[in-house]
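Sanity check. The docking grid for serine depends on where the pocket ends up, so I'm generating a full predicted complex first rather than guessing from homology. Inputs follow.
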Amino acid sequence: MARAGTMQWRSAHELRELFLTYFEGLGARRYRSFPLVPDDPTLLFTVAGMVPFKPYFLGLRAPEVARAVTAQKCIRTNDIENVGRTARHHTFFEMLGNFSFGDYFKKEVIPWAWKFLTEHIGFDEDRLYATIYLDDDEAHDFWRDLVGLPEDRIKRLGDDDNFWAAGPTGPCGPCSEIIYDQGPEFSCGRPDCGVGCDCDRYLEIWNLVFMQYSRDESGTLTPLPKKNIDTGLGIERLASVVQRVKGDFETDLFWPIITKACDISGVKYGDAENSDLAVRVISDHLRASAFMIADGVLPSNDGPGYVLRRLIRRSVRYGRLIGIDRPFLASLLPVVNEIMSDPYVELKEHGSAINQIISLEEERFGHTLSQGIELLENELNKLKSRSSAILSGEVAFLLYDTYGFPLELTEEISSEAGVEVVKEEFVREMERQRERARSSSKHSSAVMAKNIYTELADRLGATLFDGYEATSSDNSVIAAIIRGGQVVDSISSGDEAQIVLSRTPFYAERGGQVGDTGVISVGDAVFDVRDTIYLSGELIAHIGELAGGDIAVGMNVSAVVDAERRDAIRRHHTATHMLHEALCRVLGSHVRQAGSMVGPNFLRFDFNHFAPLQAEQILEAETMIYSQVLANLPVNTRVMSYAESRKSGVKALFEEKYGEVVRVLEIPGFSTELCGGTHVRATGDIGVVKIIKDESIGSGVRRINAIAGMASLDLFQSTTSALRSVSEILGVEADQFAAKIEELLEDKRALERRNQELSLRSVLDGIDSRVRNAVRVDGIALISDSFGAASRDLLRKIGDRIKQIEPLSVMLLAGVDDDGVTLIGMASDEAVKRGVHAGNLIKETSGLMGGSGGGKPAMGQGGSKNSSALKDILAKAEGIVRNQLEVAVKK
Ligand code: SER
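Predicted complex below; grid placement will be based on this.
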């Protein structure tokens, strides 16, 4: 029988464990959560506990067991705008689920679920309801007859509520939900508020899906080979009921993160709806981001990586809204770990990657954010000059879409300038974008905001890139111009814009190689190209500013790349290929490129490897590359089919998607690799390749920074000149530096020792008078004093000395330096016999200063980083010792 109303507070951790053990007791195998990115082309993320088991439901693979139970990490992003605005929306959440693969069915699962909630968790039976699918009489009868639920608490609902499917196709079936009535105070107040209402009163606690059909592309339902069970119980809402809080964010899964975010920003939860929203969003998105990275997702511009990027960016923006304008996300990660790393050990295992990737993205976005702010300020200035106080929703949408500005941020900045944003226009643009996203991808939740760029790409097709050999062209035509997020016909001097050409020698950023810079000109009009990017698909845009004159669509222009910079990029790009090959040869064939950045001044190469590079390995790789440079081998490119390239063992990147026809870069006898970038003609053009940094950027991934060409010469020159200066200072040649510095350090150590002796002597000289003037506590001399920057060692020597002079003594001795306060407590034997406890004296005083310490009756040590309370503490020693003596007497 249920123990109605006896629900006790439990942590989410306990609830998770209770659920898993309960179903283990019913013969289920407990699986660890499967990864967030499923092995399933129809889904971007694991959206429910059943996803990893789909092949079993469909009968495509034989299950290892007939019953399973999991706490599954899930991500849903279709309703991201609602996260934080409601009590229940999340991107990342955990779904508790039990599964039957052709084994138990409705008759078993209904009473089991009931029993778990009422007997194991203590739900009040009278507040529970069940919903069932319209015609599911079977489920109805089990609820009535096996559970004893009164007829009026079993509701029949339609497809929207009680038929469940993971996607448009695949396994699906009618379901039955268990609903919990939170009470009238949670109601929306509408007269028809009841079971099935969207508000917070009738909470859907647990979904039991009777997985018995497969739906095909045409929507036809075919019975599955066997009947299955898939259930889903969101741990966040379960915890919110059990912990009797108002919403998921107030449970122990989120609250500590929220509290910390409040601490950092200085906002107080409950003070304002806006700041409450911000900290809720941050807590949600940060959990999701950490878990995604732990499962191997990296920020990028499409797929799961885009979702991750969006979540991190939204967090940064919401941070700004509550006044945090410095990187802060990483400082919340320890709190996420504290809550979640048991059982999700991956958060700890990949802790440093999570930290670095989030910090990096945060830093990068900080920059875009500033650009967006600049754009907005320009718009606001223009409005001011026209005496207008209305900012178009389209600009707000551009900021949202391209620069990742939430409407609230645009509104806030605008309102400071007395300008109002036309919200309706923004909403309309948003709707249009949603519409486009819905129709253009099955991954509607993750589609990047598409806009005029896609339309342009559809209209203009691919831009012809003819810059592998040439760096200038005279026969390009301006195909389109974009200014302020709008397609325009012309621009004039001073305008910032993006220009699309019919053909271009400018390389657009791709494959790690940065975009070209240079000049597009016609007559006296000069457009300075600051960067070149792929706008959408194969459409290239030149980003920059018109320095003079006018430019219009249709004009014939000359396009000239900054050739010196491009040459420097070429050297670094070919050097990257050579480095890749050299690392494979020196470290082993497991080395695979995980990412790269090729610029004019340096290259960055990320690859899989598990240990830091040894100095000899670095030298070996550099020497290997340099011998290929000296051999001055030709650098050839060939075009072949992808299949052919795979057969001939050309290196390709793991995750990269290649077309049918690929470009292969070959350094004969040394390296072959697929690549669309620009390269030198012969290896001799590269000069010396020097590795300047090797670091870890996550588990099993290392990052090397290296330089080539002029950058190497610069380093060589600056290093030799630095060595020369040092040589002049030290008066010896470079090969004698180590010995000379060792000698100087030895001198320094000797001086320090001498200095210490002198300070000890001078302190000890003054000790006698300090002891003579000491306060007496019941006859015991108390020396509570601070001794400059005295070290722990010195304090101890002082203490020993005091004990010699005064056999009935207790001391609290402090030394203060930049790191804080060091405390040593000592008590003579005689004082200890009377009840003095130096360890406790230290414990108490360190504690009062916000630090820690302790020890034995005769000796204790401690301290604090904060020295502000030191004076008070020294003064308090008397009272503490007196107290110790009084307690001793009473005993
Ligand atoms: N798959 C169902 C859901 O997500 C039950 O786990 O609700």
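Relevant for the grid: The CA atoms of residues 320 and 620 lie 47 Å apart.
Also worth noting: The longest helix spans residues 737-772.
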